[in-house]
Amino acid sequence: MEKDTTIAVSILTADFLNLKNELDRIIAAKIPALHFDVMDNNFVPNLSFGPKILADVSNYLKDKAVMIDCHLMVQLKPKVKVKDFLKPFIISGVNSITLHYEAMNKKQLLEFINWKNAGFKKGLAIKPKTPIKVLFSDLANLDYVLIMSVEPGFGNQKFITGSYQKIKTLKQYLVTKNFKAPIIAVDGGINDSTAALCIEAGADYLVSGSYLLNNQTSITEQLEKMWK
To answer: Which residues does the annotation mark as catalytic?
Structure first.
């Protein structure tokens, strides 16, 4: 696997009684990005953390060379404006915010993708059953496309192999159109077996959670396995 690929650590399966220690492990392993999953028990069948913990984590990581990408698995209410909804998440240290294509209506989707100078990099995520082609018309206005390679909601799931074709299709389209962006990100079931195949298919950015955090070996040792 190419070492210019960005690896982000999802803290969804972290030990939250010892979150500071978990963050210190991530810093020590020189992981460049932390993936922060927000869940509402509506769009996905799980409830996680919100803006307060995000602010605390961001403050702790300040000047630690770890950027935060915030992934919102949250169903937006029909009359809510995206800019109003995202205000609590637009804070110092949050490099990017990704919303789900399936979690917004058309008006909200247009508001998000057409938002200029948002103060963060914009991403759209899609669930495994959503065709990648639904995003093609919006790619010029996005910094990230996040391909979910598991059903969103829980960590430690098995990689859905059909995700490789999604990555290839998106990569081929970007090459055909000579687009330099968006970054192709993949989230779910990323380990020492699936990582290289995702890169081969065209991914630039991989999110790994339980594989890196919930093992007997260190994060650094787990990373080394991914690079082989």
So the answer is: 37, 187
